[in-house]
Amino acid sequence: RSMAQRAQFETDAIRPTGLSSTIAPHHRVDDKLNSAEYLDAVEEEWNKRVDAEVETLVGGMQDLVELATVGDKDKHRIYEDAFETELRAENMVRAAHSLLSIVHSLKLMILLSDEGQVVERRQRELTQLAKETEAAKERAAEEWKKLVHGEDAEEAAEGEEVEDEDDAMDEV
């Protein structure tokens, strides 16, 4: 297969055009990227979403701590702080729900990915690699014999095979 054909089948990542309308708006990745670039871009997008929500949670917690200062406050300031505290808490709850939604989406992506195809491809690659390794070992052994015994090693090896066959015939 050509490199372009292999690039099409290297991943089971879903392209934005195939996503449902609930997930599709979050994916703004160029379709012209190869598989690895596409996955990197999607991963970066998810990381940015998670970072934004975590930043909202941290900022909200810092604001709540600042609002909780004890001191001389009039009624008006106390009501303002209470309202601001409610707003910060609502923002934090929204960020936490968003993080839960992100986690749920990522779990679904993992569960719905074609794990069987990935395992099958890896197994084929391992089998092919084992065959290539065995062939390389055999070639290395032949080259070693040539180096140790000289050019006549091939003839000697063939002679040994003939003798082994004769011995086997004698035993029968």
UniProtKB/TrEMBL annotation:
Residues 1-21, 141-172 are annotated as: Disordered. One of its GO terms (cellular component) is mediator complex. The keyword Disulfide bond does not apply. It comes from the Eukaryota. Residues 141-151 have a biased composition (Basic and acidic residues). One of its GO terms (molecular function) is transcription coregulator activity. This is Mediator of RNA polymerase II transcription subunit 22. The lineage of its organism: Eukaryota, Fungi, Dikarya, Basidiomycota, Agaricomycotina.
